[in-house]
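Z., the sequence and structure:
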Amino acid sequence: MRDNGAVMVWDGNYLPGLWLVQQALDIAFERIARHGVMTFAMRRSHHIACLATLVKQATDRGFVAILATSDPAFGFVAPYGGREPLLTPNPFAIGYPGTHTPILVDICASITTVSMTRQKAATGEDFEHPWLLDGEGRPTRNPRVLEQTEPRGSLLLLGGLEYGHKGFGLALMVEALTQGLSGLGRKDTEKRWGGNVFLQVLDPDAFAGREAFLEQMDYLTERCQANAPLREGMPVRLPGEQAERNIAAAREQGVPLSEHTVQRLGGTAQRFGLVMPAAF
């Protein structure tokens, strides 16, 4: 829809979100030496899954990446002070490189997610804490209030009843980046499940320089890790450290999948005439 070199606006036509973001990253990596910063706003993408895995592609190349998504067609989160679901959890990620390990922050504006809530509702479990509001605005542990009651409940914002204005602010920021900048939002979107996306990739060399960036951020990482722990034997863990360990373990031992997931993947593979890889 628009391309001025450093900024691109796309209509994703509900194509797979992972594929769309991958195309955007490839373009960013190609152009960033010329522009220093590449920014994308996408309307009508589809689900982009785990944001941290996408921004890691940028950190692996020494870049900083910011990624956010929202679904303007549906609502599961009430605005702070309200009880009617309007917003989505609006996940937001930032990743930046380090000398030893990247920092990967992947959070959302609500305390929990729609997928986790549906998972618990399907298995008949309750949350350990009251992370939702029922249709009357009362805190509840019952995940079924999100979609199986009338009036519908909503997910509590990050910060809960006391400090949910902070999650509300984050949710509004994501909506501005993903919907305002792409030109399609809650005012006019069709009721079809999808997502809008904001992606920005920054090259430290275009600012104070890569060496200066790593010097500053490595120092901060070291100070955090050296901080006196609340519990003995449990030092401060930076976002992304566990992910690095999990990736290393998966490369060595494989990725464990539940039987339900294997069955669904097998069914999809059969539908498209593909052969499932053997487990090991």
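The chain has seven helices and ten strands. The beta strands are 2-3, 7-11, 37-45, 64-70, 92-96, 103-107, 132-133, 139-140, 154-155, 195-202.

Let me know what you think.
H.
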